[in-house]
Amino acid sequence: KKIDYLIHLGDFTQLKVLTTLQEMFGKDKVIAVLGNMDNHQLKKILPENLELNLFGHKIFITHGTGGPNIIIKRLNKLHDLTDYEIVIFGHVHRPYNERWRDGKLYLCPGTPTDKTFTDVNSYGFLRISKGKIEPEIIYL
Which residues cross the membrane (predicted)? Predict the structure, then answer.
């Protein structure tokens, strides 16, 4: 699929993974945050959280902390997410694509590489236009 950006939610573990993605997709197209498994080199260059504004949609990007049953509550406790329409997180490695009562979309793409905390591999695809947000989990 053609993409405008590749968003990586951390746990690269080593710098080579990030630089390989930047070589493949272009440095300006790879948006990344730090994960709890990332080494000291990555800690020097990656932020813990990022904020994007695409087509007027405000997006919060973070790796996250906590187990699958508490991560969304923890995200809301640690960060003021009031003004965001979309919250994209990782850490739990389980796919999650749900719009909450307040209309906010919470999206965890899962993991395409391992099955440590999940029995499925997946990634997310997010189509964003001026009036539309279309999240999708793709299972491998």
Answer: none
Quick: pLDDT tens for 107-133: 999 999 988 788 899 999 999 988 899
Residue 41 sits at φ, ψ, to 5 deg, of: -65, -45
Structure tokens at 39: 């080494």
Domain topology for 6-139: Purple Acid Phosphatase; chain A, domain 2 (3.60.21)
On whether the pTM is more than 0.90, the answer is yes
Percent of the chain with pLDDT over 90: 84
Q: Give strand pairing partners of 54.
A: 57
Look at the alpha carbons of 4, 46, 17, 108 in this order and tell me if their dihedral is positive or negative. Answer: negative
C-beta separation of 94 from 116 below 8 A: no
- Distance (Å, rounded) from C-alpha 82 to C-alpha 7? 22
**Residues 116, 119, 125, 131, CA torsion sign:** negative
CA-angle at 67, arms to 98 and 136, nearest 5°: 25
Cα–Cα distance measured from residue 97 to residue 76, given in angstroms and rounded to the nearest whole number: 16
Domain extents in the chain: 6-139
Confidence (pLDDT) at 128: 93
